[in-house]
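>> Question from a student workshop board

For tomorrow's exercise we were told to take the sequence and the ligand below, predict the bound structure, and bring the output to class. My setup keeps failing. Could a helper post the expected result so I can at least see what it should look like? The ligand is zinc ion.
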Amino acid sequence: MKLLRYVCVVLLLFAIISTQTNHVFSQHEDMKVHYIDVGQGDSILIETPRGKRILMDAGDPKQGKRILSYLKKRNIKSLDLVIATHPDIDHIGGLITVLHKIKVHKIIDSGKTYDTHTYKKYIKLIKDQKIAYDRVEREAEINIDALVQIDVLNATKEKTVGNNEASIAIKIQYKEFVFLFMADVGIEQEKQMMKQYDMEADILKVGHHGSRTSTSETFIEAVQPQVAILTYGKQNTYGHPVRDVLHHLWRMNVNVFSTAVYGDITIQTDGSGYYLFTEKDPLDHMIEETASIMYLKRSKGFR
Ligand SMILES: [Zn+2]
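>> Workshop helper replied:
Here is what the output should look like for this input. Compare the format with yours to find the bug.
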């Protein structure tokens, strides 16, 4: 599959050179996945090739406003689907603001309940706003756009299972291109998934913010991603991401991008090749720092 994709990219490039066009992909059939920088937490916006909008998680309660402005900037006035992967505050917290302020057509979670104020507010809002609600479990399919295949690889409402382990993990395939979203699942769930599914994917949203509880070496070997996305806040108190996870990824030559370093990260694909855009360039930050040091020295010199 991957070799075929490279061949396609080469052919595509050849076609561009020969037709002298500036458009690499036809815009309307592209899929975009935005890993929004919400500090320590997850929030992912998916725009399917046929224009459906899915928001998966919304960071902690403070991040709701940021997500709304992210949607507003892209002229997104309603969401076709919201997926709440699990009821932890760094995933559903921001949803309270989002559900208040924007039209949501449907919401999906695993049915896992949690005894917190945030969770109660979230459930109350779904009822108050009369949002269509569905519970999914492992092996479910989410049908929203005929051009993409969305499979639920993990999800349970079992009381004996922890919130992270009960998370909704999904795989989205558009033509040959595959995204994996691991929410906060642990190594045991990764093992389960490897037994049951073909886990090979191009883009991996690393589980549980790069914690040691997820992303085993065998899992990365099974996925063989080109890009791994880590979602965590700078100087978080959990020590995410751990060195072991980063080493496993580097050893497998995976390109690692984190929201803490690059800000919002967007991947745009035509189902074959992809572009990756980042809000920040770590080098810019270094240049800014150097520039400000230089400025300070100069201003001292002028005195
Ligand atoms: Zn989390």
